[in-house]
Write a structure and sequence with these properties.
The chain has helices spanning about 20, 45-55, 60-70, 90-95, and strands at about 5, 15, 30-35, 40-45, 75-80, 85-90, 100-110, 115-120. The chain has about 120 residues and is of the alpha+beta class. It has a single domain (about 5-120), classed as 3-Layer(aba) Sandwich (Chemotaxis protein chec), CATH 3.40.1550.
Length: about 120
């Protein structure tokens, strides 16, 4: 599965499809502000293997600083509820992405055969 559409429930929870839940069942999930008013949803494995190493850099380098500021200042660590596969999205993220109820999520493939999910208003 490479994309899905859902509606948030009244508690601002996004239900992850059964076909995708396996990617998030072990460990935490990290939500950040993405590019072009999207949200990025990372598994713990992707976060630790791809994002954290990418954030390492010379603290005097302006680009390294900007990347860290963008990702570190806008992250939320969460867990998917075990029964229904839901995650709660904080209002600040919904506002950033212009999401009110309906969302479109799509897989973003990166180097090494890894991927994360981008979420946008439908």
């Amino acid at each position: 599965m490479n994309n899905f559409e859902r509606k948030l429930d009244d508690k601002k929870r996004l239900t992850i499809p059964v076909e995708v839940r396996g990617e998030f069942k072990n460990g935490y999930i990290v939500l950040t502000k993405g590019y072009d008013q999207t949200l990025a949803l990372y598994s713990q494995e992707y976060w630790e293997q791809v994002i954290e190493p990418a954030l390492e850099g010379d603290f005097r380098d302006a680009e390294s600083f900007r990347l860290n500021r963008q990702i570190q200042s806008s992250q939320s660590v969460m867990h998917m509820d075990a029964k229904q596969g839901r995650v709660t999205i904080e209002q600040r993220f919904l506002d950033y992405a212009g999401i009110t109820k309906a969302v479109n999520a799509f897989r973003v493939k990166t180097t090494g055969g890894k991927s994360y999910w981008a979420i946008e208003a439908a």
